[in-house]
């Protein structure tokens, strides 16, 4: 189950990462209790109406918000909890009669890279997701970093500009997510009064159009794009100095645009990046199923852990 806040994809995947069947469900809940109800209904619908091609070994849920993988609890959908943690792994496990692993969407994608993707060739890599927001997963010596409060990887709230006084929702000022992400490019477009970049719904900047306009020579769009690229390169180099990875794997729509990717790469200092011997590599997953593969990887880890426990 890949639950991204606005969409839920449930699917069955084999151990090589091949998607056997799947079904997309519409969601759009901002409250955790509503989301849990919708998720459990969808699980029952999938089991009863789509069914399984094979005999499933495990289930997994990759989900937005704060998730405690070890306890199998979904702590909150947004920054602040609405109530006690939801024992989502146990709920899904009981419904399907399968072991179930859960984690947040970025660590779930990081697990997929480690088991099925570009991370198979590395023990020390960073998975960087630049999409609506900006976040990262860290693998150090083959282990995924989660942290004392399962909050590791919130790199969007690293400050890259001490002179920027504009406050962020996290309580600091100058956070990088506010300049380079779907949210960030939207804020920058609004600050510069570029209403023509807003999508029909009017709530998000069309990042592709921003890059098009920059390419066509629009000075303001060019400045927003270049500043975003330099800020992201700064974060990447700070992270490289922190965990010493040999690979940076990237996903999410924004670095998928080659014009922006090349701008970021040009801003990386060779001296800092020389240990990143495999360089910046794109996730090899089909973006449509990347989240689903993340969820599946969580199930695979859970099943392996249980097998190890059984033979120990
Ligand atoms: Zn922040």
Give a concise summary.
The chain has 312 residues and is of the alpha/beta class. The protein has helices at 32-50, 88-96, 105-116, 182-191, 207-215, 219-243, 258-266, 270-273, 287-311; strands spanning 2-3, 7-13, 19-26, 59-63, 66-68, 73-76, 100-104, 125-130, 134-140, 143-144, 247-251, 279-282. The model has no long low-confidence stretch (mean pLDDT 94).
What does this structure look like?
By secondary structure, this protein is of the alpha/beta class. The chain folds into 2 domains: 2-110 and 287-311, ATPase, nucleotide binding domain (Nucleotidyltransferase, domain 5); 122-282, Nucleotidyltransferase, domain 5 (2-Layer Sandwich), CATH 3.30.420.40. Helices cover 39% and strands 19% of the residues. The protein is built from 9 helices and 12 strands. The chain has helices at residues 32-50, 88-96, 105-116, 182-191, 207-215, 219-243, 258-266, 270-273, 287-311; strands at residues 2-3, 7-13, 19-26, 59-63, 66-68, 73-76, 100-104, 125-130, 134-140, 143-144, 247-251, 279-282. Strands 3-2-1-4-7 form a 5-stranded mixed beta sheet, sandwiched between helices. The two termini are 30 Å apart. Zinc ion binds next to loops.
């Amino acid at each position: 189950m890949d639950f991204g806040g606005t969409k839920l994809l449930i699917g069955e995947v084999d151990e090589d990462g091949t998607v056997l069947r799947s079904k997309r469900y519409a969601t759009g809940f901002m409250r955790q209790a509503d989301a849990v109800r919708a998720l459990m209904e969808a699980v029952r619908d999938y089991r009863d109406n789509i069914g399984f091609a094979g005999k499933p070994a495990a289930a997994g849920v990759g989900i937005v918000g704060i998730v405690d993988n070890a306890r199998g609890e979904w702590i909150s959908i947004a920054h602040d909890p609405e109530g006690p943690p939801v024992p989502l792994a146990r709920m899904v496990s009981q419904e399907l009669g399968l072991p179930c692993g859960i984690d947040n969407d970025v660590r779930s994608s990081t697990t997929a890279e480690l088991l099925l993707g570009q991370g198979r060739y590395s023990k020390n890599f960073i998975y960087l997701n630049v999409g609506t927001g900006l976040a990262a997963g860290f693998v150090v010596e083959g282990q995924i970093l989660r942290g004392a409060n399962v909050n590791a990887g919130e790199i969007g709230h690293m400050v890259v500009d001490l002179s920027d006084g504009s406050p962020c929702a996290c309580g600091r000022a100058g956070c990088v997510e506010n300049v380079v992400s779907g949210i960030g490019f939207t804020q920058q477009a609004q600050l510069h009064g570029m209403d023509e970049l807003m999508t029909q719904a009017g709530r998000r900047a069309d990042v592709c159009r921003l890059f098009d306009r920059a390419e066509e020579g629009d000075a303001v769009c060019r400045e927003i794009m270049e500043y975003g690229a330099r800020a992201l390169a700064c974060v990447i180099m700070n992270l490289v100095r922190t965990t010493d990875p040999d690979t940076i794997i990237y996903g999410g729509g924004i670095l998928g645009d080659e014009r922006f990717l090349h701008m970021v790469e040009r801003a990386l200092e060779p001296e800092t990046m020389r240990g990143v011997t495999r360089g910046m590599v794109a996730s090899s997953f089909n973006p449509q199923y990347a989240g689903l593969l993340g969820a599946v990887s969580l199930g695979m880890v859970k099943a392996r852990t249980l097998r190890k426990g059984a033979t120990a």
